[in-house]
Every structure is written in C-alpha cells, then in structure tokens.
Amino acid sequence: MNSERPEKRGTPVGRRVFLGTLGLGALGVYAAPTLQRGTEAFLAGASQLDPSGLTGLLPNGGGFRYYSVTTSVPHKDATNYRLTVDGLVDHPTTYTLDDLRALPQTRMVKDIQCVTGWRVPQTPFEGVRLSHLLDAAGVRGSAGAVRFTCFDGAYSESLTLEQARRSDVLVALRMQDEDISHAHGGPVRLYVAPMYFYKSAKWLSGITVTEYVKPGYWEDLGYDVDAWVGKSNGRDDDPTS
Ligand SMILES: Nc1nc2c(c(=O)[nH]1)N[C@H]1C(S)=C(S)[C@@H](COP(=O)(O)O)O[C@H]1N2
Ligand SMILES: [Mo]
C-alpha cells in the first residue's frame, strides 16, 4: 500500500486503498471509475477480515453486503445516540433515539440498488421523514442543500434541499421491520429511496443545512452527486422509486 499508517480508529480504508490504486500510475487516472467500483467491492471483502464485529454477519446476508469505509465503528443505542440538526436553521436541535421514535413514522417498501450492481427487492424501511425534521428546524431562505455526517467519523453525504424534502427520504429507524442493526448503520441511517444506496448514509449523526451541495465520501472518489437509480453513474438499472 502506501506510506499512510493505520490509525487507532476511523481509518478511511477506502481512500487508502484508492490511493494505493492510483500508485499504479497513469492507468489509475483513465480507469478511475471502474477501479473505484472495484474498490467498493474490495471493501466488502476487506470487512471479512475486519475485527470490528461486522465479520460474523458476512458474507452477504439476505442479498445485502455490509459496507463500512472505516475499520471499526462505535456502537450506539438509546442511551448514547444523538442526532444533531444545525446549520442554516432557526432552531438547531439535538434528538435522542426516543425523541425520533416519538415522531410520526413513515414506512415504505421498495427495491434497494447499490451502484456496484447488487439489488435487494422490496425492502421495508421505516422512520421519520427528513422533511419533518427540516420543517421543525426552520430552514432559512439562504439554504440550498443538506449535508449528512456519520459517527463512523469518515462517511458523508449530501442532497439538494429539494431532494431532501422528498417524501421518500427518511431518517430511518427500522429496516426489514426490525430496528436497524449496527452492521446496517443503526440505530439510525439515512434512506434515500430513489437513489443508489451510497446516498443512504449509515450511522447518521449530523444533518447540517448548507448553502451548496458538498460532494460526499464516494462522490469525492468519482460517484455522481445526483445518484438517481438508472439515470446516473453510467448505469441503466430499473428505478427503485
Ligand atoms: N457510514 C457509511 N454509510 C454508508 C456506507 C459506508 O461505507 N459508510 N456505504 C454506502 C454504500 S456504498 C452502500 S451500498 C450502503 C450499504 O448498506 P448496507 O451495509 O446496510 O448494505 O451503505 C451506504 N452508506
Ligand atoms: Mo454501494
């Protein structure tokens, strides 16, 4: 690999692998999109060697793969989970898990599609509409986007404000009619039904209303920011929503 040393926690494995790939030379530049998808696939394999606790669940339960760009992620539950909503809002708010559970819940059942090709049909997700949290926070007129951060300390995502206000975008508490497991990004993950699954940030801890979209973790590595299933990333999958 390269000269970067592993850190105690939160090492961005994907970036390390990707930089290693670029180390191959100019080929890395021309072949970048393919190599990046290869990188994500590699991570699914890498997590099989991961002593973080995800290991026992692999490989690939029920059509899913378990992805994390870090080597370990802290476990959070109702005692210590917090979600902050801040940025260009009138009322910055911090929610506990119980706070989120007390809000109106929306359930939907749609296919999930990862940009690397795997699809899981008819997967129930349930949680609070992101639009509900945005309305409660009072989004200011200057706002144009929403940025999501995660308690793995590395992953990030973003949506335009218009995308974020869609009724099929959830701050999800349940998946497959169970509380979201740690491996799947619990206790709370984002769920963006009409977009490739990389938009659905796991281990969600921060929602920041911003002026402009800032590309997320995989988007910095080449994935499309507007990640509509079937209409982005050079793919023609059937829509999920
Ligand atoms: N925090 C975080 N969220 C993430 C990822 C990740 O590595 N870290 N991977 C993304 C990608 S590429 C996919 S396909 C899905 C995988 O979700 P799963 O592990 O529940 O199958 O999570 C998305 N959200
Ligand atoms: Mo993915």
UniProtKB/TrEMBL annotation:
Gene3D superfamilies per UniProt: Oxidoreductase, molybdopterin-binding domain (3.90.420.10)
Pfam families per the UniProt record, alphabetical: Oxidored_molyb (PF00174)
Annotated Oxidoreductase molybdopterin-binding domain residues: 72-218
Database matches in InterPro entries: OxRdtase_Mopterin-bd_dom (IPR000572), OxRdtase_Mopterin-bd_sf (IPR036374), TAT_signal (IPR006311)
Superkingdom as given in the UniProt entry: Bacteria
Protein name: Oxidoreductase
Organism: Streptomyces dioscori
